[in-house]
Amino acid sequence: MAFLVLDRLSKRYGETVAVDQLSLAVEKGEFVTLLGPSGCGKTTTLLMIAGFVEPSSGAITLDAADLLATPPRRRGLGIVFQSYALFPHMTVAENVAFGLEMQGVARAEREKRVREALALVGLAAFAERFPRKMSGGQQQRVALARALVIRPRVLLLDEPLSNLDAKLREEMQLELRQIQRSVHITAILVTHDQTEAMALSDRIVVMNKGKAEQIASPDVAYEAPASPFVASFLGKTNVLPADVRAAGEEAAVTVGGAVWRTAAGVPSGAASVSVRPERISFAAEGGLGGIVRRASFHGAQWLLLVETAAGVVTVIRQNSGGPLPKEGEQVALSWRAEDMRVTAGSGE
């Protein structure tokens, strides 16, 4: 049996369903991210695991024990909040030791574990400093040390990096993943940041309107999205109207007058095609015709918006130093049949 299990977990506020029959099994030592837009139910789910919100129905077990029957303070969970929630009048060491004091841990053992936790997050030299004299990244590490020092069975992370600037956020993503692996702790992260979710997670739970639309490893969710919502939310994607004509084991998929032949997977009729911007190339001839309306430089890559008969298509090309079409230039877009996902219906 999995280490942490959510079984048909639901939370309702009157007529509003915040979380709807969510089931999830998390293995020991796994890093799982709840990903989705605001209001999708991800934070409510985390708070139900923590014990701060009572479920309307369903069950939560941790190591085969009923977690819902256990008071929050006895669940053995470490929590890092978005705001860090550090005590400003306490030093770093005192902040980290707080949870151990509440547990009645002896002073000598407490001091030893605080030193170990601060060393783990790279703050051994900051024990006597106050939070107000530390950077955002350092405060985030203090909050992480405070959560880890109690040796929790599960680490809960509620948007812990959202207050950091972009460069520091990337650095802390690497550090957080390294720390999680080094102590082999089970971690549940809540975030709306797709890049963060893919960089940190063993698996991602993509949530929408209280439901899990897909539970998969980051690469599988990105390359084989289970729904148009997952395709559009997890990274950039183009969703274009198409027409499918299936004949035997083959199908002709028409997008804006251009035809791709692929294995028959959906019935004939109106459909939608999803294709990632980085999988689209410029063809010498054939393909989907269009005009470059905008080309913007992003350092490592170029982003181009191409107006076509199927709508505006986003194209991402790596900055290899080679020539690219200019704004106003006519182009033909092409992609491999295996790089597009075809879904029956118009997607509207």
Structure, briefly:
By secondary structure, the chain is of the alpha+beta class. Helices cover 24% and strands 37% of the residues.
Instruction: Tell me the span between the first and last alpha carbons.
Output: 40 Å
Specify the structural class: alpha+beta
Major sheet summary line: 6 strands, mixed
Number of strands: 20
Identify the CATH class of the largest domain: Alpha Beta
Name the shape in a single word: globular
CATH fold group of the largest domain: Rossmann fold
Helical content class = 10-25%
Question: What percent strand?
Answer: 35-45%
Mean pLDDT: 92
Order of secondary-structure elements = EEEHEEEHHHEHEHEEHHEEEEEEEEEE
Instruction: Strand order, main sheet: write it out.
Output: 6-7-8-3-9-10
* Number of H- or I-type helical stretches: 8
Question: pLDDT below 50 for ≥5 consecutive residues: which ranges?
Answer: none
For the record, the count of structural domains works out to 2
Write out key terms for the chains shown.
348 residues; alpha+beta; Rossmann fold; OB fold (Dihydrolipoamide Acetyltransferase, E2P); 2 domains; five-stranded antiparallel beta sheet; 37% strand
Description:
The protein is an alpha+beta fold and 348 residues long. It has 2 domains: 229 residues, P-loop containing nucleotide triphosphate hydrolases (Rossmann fold); 109 residues, Beta Barrel (OB fold (Dihydrolipoamide Acetyltransferase, E2P)), CATH 2.40.50. 24% of the residues lie in helices and 37% in strands. The protein is built from 8 helices and 20 strands. It has a 6-stranded mixed sheet, with helices on both faces. A 5-stranded antiparallel sheet has the order 13-12-11-14-20. A 5-stranded antiparallel sheet has the order 15-19-16-17-18, with no helix packed on it. Strand 9 and strand 10 form a beta hairpin. Helix 2 packs across helix 3 and helix 2 packs parallel to helix 4. The longest helix has 18 residues. The two termini are 40 Å apart. The model has no long low-confidence stretch (mean pLDDT 92).
